Amino acid sequence: MKNESMGDERPILLSRQGHVAVLTLNRPQTRNALSGEAMFAAFETCFAELNADKNIRVAILTGGGTAFCSGGNVAEMRDRTGMFGGTAEEVTEGYRLGIQRIPRAFALLEVPIIAAVNGPAMGAGCDLASMCDIRIASNTARFAESFVKLGIIPGDGGCWLLPRLVGASRAAEMALTGDTIDAAQALRIGLVSRVVVPEELMTCALELAGRIAANPPQVLRWTKQLLRQAQAQTLDQALNEAGRVQGLAHQTPDHHEAVAAFFEKRAAVFSS
Asked: In the predicted model, is pLDDT for residue 6 greater than 50?
């Protein structure tokens, strides 16, 4: 992985600070709208790179400019271009080969990822934040599951994502009204876990990422995997999978190092 920015022409800039990867949406001219092959492929490419780099233990996703993500490109909807053009069947295929690649890429991402929501997260932008494992927000952030306002439905998985974060009733209220909520309300309903002033957002995100990255890298990936799998498992299934992974964890050098550090009252030094 490169430490420097990939270049201003890239839809996502990727940098590294120690064990932490920072991904910045780089389409400020469209308020980081999710559109186009380059953007969809960038998520897949960046996440594959993070999965392959065992030195990376946690990632942060934020937006360049004043917005986190404005969602789909409404101008393309108006003009019926890109994935919004063609017959109903062609639009269906356009979504499958387009924006739906993003939640599928998130489902394959092995490292924990924090959304640092620096501004509006609207429509698919709200869903993008929901795809992350943890969300923190600037007090200038706003959220809306606003698809209904444009006469469409959450085509990127919002009806699956949002109820798992805020519950069925609140998710229904957001999706059926399309209303915008501020960061304080997002905190109250559990959509985000903390709200900070804009100047402290990335400092807070990096501090949280550092506390996560202080732990054994493979165990972080396994724990994230178990958290995701448990959403669709019975208790027995979750226990069986936890037992299987725990058996592997107990054999790792990092487990032995963590136990030794505990008894020796020192900071542990893990394998990557």
From this structure: no
Does the structure show a pLDDT above 80 at 32? yes
Phi-psi region of 65 (alpha: psi -120 to 50; beta: other; left: phi over 0): left
Using only C-alpha atoms, what is the Rg of the chain? 19
- Contact between residue 11 and residue 36 where contact means Cβ atoms under 8 Å apart: yes
Is the predicted pLDDT of residue 16 greater than 80, yes or no? yes
Long-range Cβ contact pairs of 227-235 (< 8 A, separation 24 or more):
227/133, 228/107, 231/164
According to the model, what pLDDT value does residue 97 have?
A: 94
39 and 28 Cβ atoms separated by less than 8 Å: no
Residue 160 has pLDDT above 70, yes or no: yes
Confidence (pLDDT) at 2:
43
